[in-house]
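Please review this pair:
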Amino acid sequence: MTDIILFNKPFEVLCQFTDREGRKTLADFIPEAGVYPAGRLDYDSEGLLILTADGSAQKAIADPRSGMAKTYLVQVEGIPGESALQLLRAGVELKDGKTRPARAEAAFPPDDLWERVPPVRYRLRVPTSWIRLVIKEGRNRQVRRMTAAIGFPTLRLIRTAVGPWSLGALRPGQWRKIRVLLP
């Protein structure tokens, strides 16, 4: 058994505990000593980040070879049709190679989705829509690059689950510690 922290990382928070530029970091939210992120979530992304003090747990969660699924709710510019979603499902060619096939479907944001601060920039003539995307790898800015590659740039990116763990009722900036058994 090991302890992990489930944290709902707000927009514009770094996934580290210090920053020379004075930006918000994990230290602004999590008072626990000796824990580290199991994986990353970009500064301009939101949602579930898992932290632990257990190095083997950190590796089991973050290592792409473990095949742990990561689920995202992605607001994109435009309305992708079935053919665009199929491109994501087949894997998308990026500059650093083709992605693994993803699960992709049109989605709606949950009724209790928090407002982002600052809000996403809206354009009157350009509709937006949401995609639920599940990937089993974690390249740098991968989801954003995947949606851009199929012609639908990401406007907002929220990780809702990692493996069996989800945000649940955690609001931005909230966290909870749980005890888990990892393989």
Q: What stands out?
A: The first strand starts at residue 2 and ends at 9. Residues 69-162 form a domain with the Alpha-Beta Plaits fold (CATH 3.30.70.1560). The CA atoms of residues 107 and 131 lie 5 Å apart. The radius of gyration is 16 Å.
